[in-house]
Each structure stands twice: as C-alpha cells, then as structure tokens.
Amino acid sequence: MTGATGAILGIKLLLALRRLQVEAYLILSHWAEETIKYETDYTPANVRALADHVYSIHDLGAPVSSGFFHADGMIVIPCSMKTLAGVNMGYCEDLITRAADVMLKERRRLVLAVRETPLSEIHLRNMLEVTRAGAVVCPTVPAFYTKPASIGEVVDQMVGRMLDLFGVETGDFSRWEGFERA
User: Which residues of the sequence carry a binding annotation for FMN (predicted)?
Assistant: First the structure.
C-alpha cells in the first residue's frame, strides 16, 4: 500500500484475502500509514494484523525482493503516481518498487491500482510503459451499473474486480448481466 488516497481499498483487499484464506504479504509505505490514519478508523497496526506477513518498506533483503520467492502476483493498492513512476523506470528505491520489479522480470501478474485525477501526460506515459512491460493498470474507478448504495459497495466492487484478475472470486458484488430486454 502506498500513500495515494484510497487506503480503504487496500484494507478491504486484505480483509477479502483473509476471508478467502489467501496468504497475504504486506508492505506499507510511510505515507500509506499516514493515509490510513487520516482516511479510516484503522491504525497501521490494525492493518498489519490483517496480513499473514508484513515487511518494512526499507527491507530490501525481504523474501519478496527476490525472484526465487514464489508469489502468484502483486497488487499495489492504492498505487501512487510516485510508485508508478518508480516501477516504470525500474527504480527500486524501496521494497514496494523492488517487489514490483521482481513481478515484471519473472513475468508474474502485477496490478497497479492507480489513484489520481486528472491524469497528466507523464502519468499516461508511465501507465502505457508499465502495461507494455507486463503490468495491469487498474485505476480505482467505480462501476455504477451495480447501483451501489454505499461507498462500501463501491469499494467491494473495485476490490472484487482486482481479485478477478487473479481468478479469485469474492462474491462481494453484482456482475454486469447486460441490459434487460423487453
């Protein structure tokens, strides 16, 4: 999790993974911790407790920093534009960007849940380049066809959509079934 707005998305992802008994590894940036405190009723300690394994952003010797560590993939949620730029440039200054770099070099699934608006040309170029390198850019854009009644339902749909990219079904949202025909 990075410091972009939308900390609840990362928290709800961890909650879904726990409920589905999917092993979760967590790296929190400094600004993610601050955003968690500002945007939610959770503390960084509460969020860390939701993961099976937690690593310091400064621990470049952590298992997830190596291609020898097997992982099905990685979701950076929310993903700041700074982190997107670091991933695009291969600038592994911290464990988040290093682990993302490993996902790309090992041809594993990397999903970047970018969170920014409006987008500059630089943001768009970075998104295009990481997509070309094999990442999936999945902006945190709500779907309104589900007729969400709350922010929680919007968040559940976005988290469910990201887990769909890994073949993991949450059952937490309604799927599009087309327009009703008369």
Answer: 3-5, 29, 80-83, 115
